[in-house]
Amino acid sequence: MSQTKAVRIDNLQYANWSEKIFRQMRQGGVDAVHVTIAYHENFREMVFNIERWNRWFEQFPELIFHGNWASDVVKAREGGRTAIYFGFQNPSPIEDDIGLVEVVHALGARFMQLTYNNQSLLASGCYEAEDTGITRMGRQVIKEMNRVGLVVDMSHSAERSTLEAIEISERPIAITHANPAWWMPALRNKSDEVLKAVGQSGGMLGFSLYPHHLKDKSACTLSSFCEMVARTADLMGIDHIGIGSDLCQDQPDSVVEWMRVGRWSKEVDYGEGSRDNAGFPPQPDWFKDNRDFGNIEQGLRKTGLSEADVGKIMGGNWLRFYEASFTPA
């Protein structure tokens, strides 16, 4: 096992999964990864994705296993494996049936975004011209998510919807993968008001390594990223930040179209309105895959953060959040 001082948790990846990537997780000492198992899938299609993960758990039991509870991070660490947690980037798997919230939690889902860029039955996405906030169904679904232990994720949601979700939810919410808008003004990145509200309510922000969310994109430097993390700690509080890399390793460019378009449009959505965003951009040279988490850890140390605070950012905060969030209320 790759021994590391700090627990390492990446709270968002959507890679083209393979034995190579699972082995890189181990080489990088990554104890847990929250993986996306639905973008636009309906319930039955999401179940098919779980079946596929079950085969990988069966094929590579020495590398990965299905994580359900916070204790599985400890189990993974002790056994030299990586715990895999399921999440949705859209509420499409619950269709229009609030009863499926409890069902998907029973199947292992632990995070669900209320929107993916567009308006959903629950809230407004960040690409909509008008943000109408949390819908009537959204209020009921948040209540049910709170009850069963399914985390409200507002990574792709618009400003009003996000602030309302924080206010409505009786349990802290997460923004699993985004960055501050002051550092990189992408539609997906979050305002100071949202970040402060997340921190004050006990929620979590996972910093994204996806180049379209980074200052200078693929040319973003490690020092720029880590200085941004340290400054955001001052804004939100050190206990409310972690990593949510949004790593899409080895994915073909066709997957970007599925992520952005799904089945809702016959036209290609380039994201942020630019053809320059077509396809997957190259990762920064200091974070290409799971073996590079040590670079982030070293970069954070250079900002002057204490060893304890670096440990919180690399995974300690997510572990505490898992402990508080995954079990029924």
Q: Can you put this structure into words, describing what you see?
A:
- Helix 8 packs across helix 10 (293-302).
- This protein has one domain (9-325): Alpha-Beta Barrel (TIM Barrel), CATH 3.20.20.140.
- The protein is globular.
- The longest helix is centred in the last third of the chain and has 19 residues, at 307-325.
- The chain has 329 residues and is an alpha/beta fold.
- The strands form two sheets. Strands 1, 2, 3, 4, 5 and 6 form a six-stranded parallel β-sheet that branches. It has a three-stranded parallel β-sheet with strand order 7-8-9.
- The protein has helices spanning 19-27, 43-59, 71-79, 100-106, 136-148, 159-168, 192-200, 222-236, 254-261, 293-302, 307-325; strands at residues 9-13, 32-38, 64-66, 82-88, 109-113, 151-153, 174-178, 204-207, 241-243.
Task: Provide keyphrases for this structure.
329 residues; alpha/beta; TIM Barrel; three-stranded parallel sheet; 11 helices; 9 strands; 13% strand
Report low-confidence residues grouped into runs of 5 or more. Answer: none
* Overall spatial form: globular
Please identify which CATH superfamily we are dealing with: Metal-dependent hydrolases
* Count of spatially separate domains: 1
Number of helices: 11
Number of strands: 9
Mean pLDDT across residues = 95
Question: How is this structure best summarized?
Answer:
With 329 residues, this protein is α/β, with parallel strands linked by helices. It contains eleven helices and nine strands.
